[in-house]
Structures are given as structure tokens and as C-alpha cells.
Amino acid sequence: MPNGPKILIVDDEPQIRRFLRASLGAHQFHVVEAETGDGAIKTCAAEQPDLTILDLGLPDMDGLDVIARIREWSTVPILVLSVRADEADKIDALDRGADDYITKPFGVGELMARVRAALRHGMQANDQEPVFANGDLRVDLVRRQVSVAGNEVHLSPKEYDLLKELVTHSGRVLTHQHLLRNVWGPAHVEETQYLRVYIGQLRQKVESDPARPRYIVTEPGVGYRLKEPVAE
Fold first, then answer.
1. Per-residue pLDDT of the chain (232 residues; tens, 9 = 90+)
2. How far apart are the first and last CA of the chain?
3. CA 132/CA 159 separation, integer angstroms
4. 95 Cβ partners below 8 Å, 6+ apart?
């Protein structure tokens, strides 16, 4: 039996579960399965997986409700795998607590990359490193210091709070509403243009080429993602 991280697959299509089981098993992941929303919640509680891969179109309840139910008691990373491609569905899933979203059909390479990123995010959430480093970018969360290529970068308080939110959830897509709510407060969740201005200011300070950002990546129509360090 594979001895890698345990992954719960939730999908009502046997062929999808079979494909995912084979793909993940080939990379030494230990796979458990559920085909309904109720089964997903019970299996997640019983098995305590390291990651849940969740389809939204389940026979007994919407996958969005499954995300909300699991988030009542668990921080397990949730990777949505769905045919729903509308931005509204992606935003709703991410706002309810999903860590990432892949639209069917998908490639195995992309899936495995997203799985690894979600697993890293789960480990970070349980043991947040005090210093985030990726390439030339370094963020010391204890001293509230930011540097690029060894040179200190001076950020405004809101710029730092925005970068900290991205760093804390590095590798995860954060919706516009999530960032606005967590950095500026609930009264500002509709001010997406305001957020774009601050993202632009951050890129000017931490990116070598703000027009082609290496670190703060736009997820069109949804939000932003801070890229995680690439393993050597």
C-alpha cells in the first residue's frame, strides 16, 4: 500500500475515481474515496486525510455545501475538480474555504502540481514558518520586514498587511472578496478596483518586472495567488 500523504477523492463518476486513484497511486499517495456529499463528510472525519479532491456535482448535495460543512471543523486542504467553469462558481468555492480549483478536463501534470501545492499549504497552515522566501523575495513575518535581493523594501501598513495575507496563504488562490474582507474589512468587499491599485503598488516594489510578475499572480476574474517557492 502506498505510504505517502492520504488523499480523499470525492466524485460520483467511477471512471474519474479510477483515473485519479491510478494517477495518485503512481506517485505513492494513499487514496480513500467517497461518491456522495454525505459520504465525503463522514469519510473526511473518519480518515483525517491530508487533502480532499472534491467534485461539486454530487448526487445528494452540492459540493459547495460539502466545503462549508467540512470547514466547520477541519482545515484540510480542499482541491475542487469540477466541470463548472464559471467565475462565480470558482469564487463561491474559494470563498467557502476551498484552497484551489481545477476545471475538467484537466491534465495529470497540472493536477499533480496543484496537489503538491495544496499539501504544502496544509503543512504551512499547521506550522507557519516565520520567514517566507522565494527567489529574491524574503518576508520576515516576525519582524515585519520585506526585502528583495537583500535590499529592504519599505511598504505602507496596508501594503504589508496585503502581502502578509498572500504569504500566509501562499500557493492558494485568494478571491478579491477574501483579500478585501481580511485586509480592509467587510465594508470594502466590493471595492475590487481599490485592491487592484494596491496589488499594482506591491508589484512595483517587489517584482523585477511588474508587468510580468514572478510572485503575485493574477487569477483572472477571481483573485490573486502568491507563488510558492520551487523545490530545488
1. 555 789 999 999 999 999 999 999 998 899 999 999 999 999 998 888 989 999 999 999 999 999 999 988 888 899 999 998 888 889 999 989 999 999 988 888 889 988 988 887 766 555 555 788 888 999 987 678 899 999 999 999 899 999 989 988 888 889 999 899 888 888 888 888 989 999 999 999 999 999 999 999 999 989 999 987 754 4
2. 28
3. 16
4. 175, 177, 178
Q: Residues 60, 62, 67, 71: what is their CA dihedral angle, to the nearest 10 degrees?
A: -70
Residue 114: Cβ-neighbour burial (10 angstroms; 0-12, 13-18, 19+): buried
Residue 103 exposed, middle or buried by CB count within 10 Å (0-12, 13-18, 19+): middle
Q: Supply 19's cell numbers.
A: 483515473
Q: 18: number of CA atoms within 13 Å, CB side?
A: 3
- Whole-prediction pTM: 0.66
| Amino acid present at 54 | L
Q: How many Å separate Cα 184 from the centre of its chain?
A: 21
Q: Where are the alpha helices (DSSP H) in the chain?
A: 14-25, 37-47, 63-71, 87-96, 108-126, 157-168, 176-183, 192-206
